[in-house]
Design a protein that fits this description.
- This protein has 210 residues and is mainly alpha-helical.
- The protein has eight helices and three strands, in the order E-H-E-H-H-H-H-H-H-E-H.
- It has helices spanning 24-35, 71-76, 82-90, 96-115, 120-128, 131-140, 147-173, 191-195; strands at residues 5-7, 40-42, 177-179.
- The protein has a three-stranded parallel beta sheet, with helices on one face.
- The N and C termini lie far apart (43 Å).
- The relative contact order is 0.17.
Length: 210
Amino acid sequence: MRKAGVLLHISSLPGPFGCGTFGKSAYRFADFLAASGFAIWQVLPFNLPHSDGCPYYSVSTFAQNPLFIDPEILQEDGLLTPQEVTQIAADATGSFDALAQKREKYLRQAAKRFALTPQAEDARRYAQKRPGVLQACQFLSRENPTGENLFYHIFLQYAFFRQWDALHRYLAARGIEVIGDIPYYVNLNSSEVYYNPECFLLNKDGQPDF
C-alpha cells in the first residue's frame, strides 16, 4: 500500500524558543498530518549536532539534542518557573550553538530541581539500562566528572526521552509512522571512538588510517 509522508526536522517546527521542540507545535503538526491524509513523518537524526549544525556528525550516536526538550513541558512538570520560560523565549536568538549555550543555565536549574524528586532514580535507571546513553553522558561530563554534572547530562537524555516518547505515542494513536535517521559519519571526537577505539582503524597517534 502506498503512503504519503512529509520530511520536517524537529528543529524546523515553529515556536518561541529559536528551535523547534517536542511541545505544542509538534502536536499541532501531528494533527495536521493526520487531517491531511499523511501517514509518515520523516525526521533527521535527533543527535547532538556538530558545531556547524549538522546532525549527521555527532559527538555520540546516543546523545540526543537537548534543544528539542520543550521548556513549557518542563514548566508543567514543575522544573522551570513561568519567568524562566519567558526568559528562555526572550533569549531565543542566534545560532543553534548560541541557543544551546544560553539554554544551559535553565536546563541545569531544571536538573537540580528534578534531582530532588522521586523520579530522579528513574532517570538513573534509564541510563544504567542503556550503556550507550550512559557512556555518552560520561563523555560529555568528562571535563568536570562530578556527580552533579553527570546527573545533569543523564537528566537531559531522560527528559528528551520522556517528551519524545509522549509525542511518538500521540503520533501512533493517529496512525502516523515516524521514519528516523542516524548520524552515519562517526566523529573522531565522539564517545564511540573515545571508549571503543579498537572498533576503528586508528594509527598509533589515534588518528584515522583512512
